[in-house]
Design goal:
Radius of gyration: 14 Å
Mean pLDDT: 84
Low-confidence stretches: none
Distance between the termini: 5 Å
Number of helices: 3
Order of helices and strands: EHEEHEEH
Strand order of the largest sheet: 2-3-1-4-5
Oligomer: single chain
Length: 120
């Protein structure tokens, strides 16, 4: 990947309420720096299902600090909710998981990973 080029980051939510992924998606789409960059990705549909459930959020990052905006927004979302949700952020190379208890410790590392993967 060329320095400064776009990178898709996948955000998964586990161990929380059923609507945590949808709520996080709405939160991220309302962030001015992330608006238009967040898409809901649905899981596969089996032959016995009428539709699929949202599986993850895909966030398109590029130059201009969108990675920092994502980390800040995730941190704020977790701190404003009463949730046991565990968030996993995946880049093409790495994966970092955190929750309300560990987000403060992990946020600087997550920013570095997003920046490093975007610069590769």
């Amino acid at each position: 990947m060329e320095a400064g080029s776009a990178m898709d980051v996948h955000v998964r939510v586990a161990e929380g309420r059923n609507d945590d992924l949808a709520a996080l998606g709405t939160w991220l789409r309302d962030d001015d720096e992330l608006r238009g960059r967040v898409q809901v990705v649905h899981g596969p549909i089996s032959s016995t299902e009428l539709g699929s459930l949202p599986e993850l959020l895909s966030v398109a990052l590029g130059t201009g600090g969108a990675g920092t905006a994502l980390v800040t927004s995730l941190r704020t979302w977790l701190s404003t909710r009463r949730t046991t949700a565990r968030i996993t952020v995946e880049t093409g190379k790495r994966s970092i998981s955190f929750d309300i208890q560990t987000v403060g410790d992990v946020a600087p590392l997550l920013e570095q990973v997003l920046k490093a993967d975007n610069d590769d």
